[in-house]
Structure formats: structure tokens, C-alpha cells
Amino acid sequence: MGSVSSQNDSPEPEQLAFIRETLRSSKAPKAKPRTWRGAPLAKELPVARVLVDKGVLHLDRYFEYAVPEELDEVAQPGVRVRVRFGAGSRNVRDGRREGGGLIDGFLVERVAEAEYQGPLAALAQVLSPEPVLGPELLALTRAVADRYAGSLADVLQLAVPPRHAKAEARTFPQPPAPPSAPGPA
User: Fold this and answer.
1) Structural domains in the chain plus CATH codes
2) Which residues contact 83 (CB under 8 A, 6 or more apart)?
3) Is the full-model pTM beyond 0.85?
């Protein structure tokens, strides 16, 4: 009445192990890395380190983003960029991060491989192709932020002038050539 045959007890653990092994072996290899929009990554230095423009001390570090192929030429160190920030690891679907708000920042450097092991969000856009943050200014603002216990983003807001899209779009004429030296009279 209360007895269970020995045949039913032994196959269950073997079946679970077989199912786990089948699932592990059936995972497809990863395809070529792509950005969250499905666009291919830049061929050289596909990872950008970005300093987000938030004056909060715990965010005073670089965040890594994928550089889409379409932004490869304009995404140079020192330019202003817009990135999706705050999605977290809870909103990952099909290997890409979703959600979060758009926030401005500075592209500090581009590297070949990311230190972060999870999926990277892509740069949303390059706001201005003009580099405004050189290595000397970055080192100086980092030293000021460290010395006075501020965040790098706060110091950069004071050191780098705000963006004026109207002035950036305007083309300026080439300055006239300097006058030639007077000849012997």
C-alpha cells in the first residue's frame, strides 16, 4: 500500500541531470556583438568610457558604453555625448539593456575591451563633434575635485562652458591672410 517501487526513485535525479546538460549544451554561441539598437559596433575601439554629468559622489567614475559603427568617426575622446543611464541589470532583454533616462556626459576615452562583464548600452548620440575636454583639462579638474572633495562632474560644469548649439552650427569665414612684408623701395 505505502510502498513505492525502486524503479521510480532512481530515474528522477538522472533525468534532471540529463535535462540540465541538454540545456547547457543547447545554448547557441554568441553572435557578433551588437548595440542595443541592433546596429553593429565600431571595428576599432568599440568601448567608450563616459563620465556622466551627475554631481553625485557615488557616480563619480567612468561608465562603459558600446560605440555604434555609425558614431565611430565622431565619437572621439573629449566630445559631449548623450547616453541612456539608470537601466540597471533588471531590464536586460535579449542581451541588451532597456530603460533608463537620457543623460549628457563626456566621452573620456575609447578602449578595445570593457572591464564590465555584462551587456553594454550604446551611446545614444554625440551632441557636438567638437572636443571640449582635453587630457590636460581632465587631469586638472580631477585634481581640483580630489583636493576639494567635490565630484568631477561638478568641477567640469564650471570648467567647460555650456553647449550652445546655435554657435556650433554657425560657420565662420576663414581669417584673411596676413599682409606680406613690404619689399625694398
Assistant:
1) 47-132 (3.40.1440)
2) 50, 52, 63, 65, 102, 103, 105, 121, 123, 124
3) no
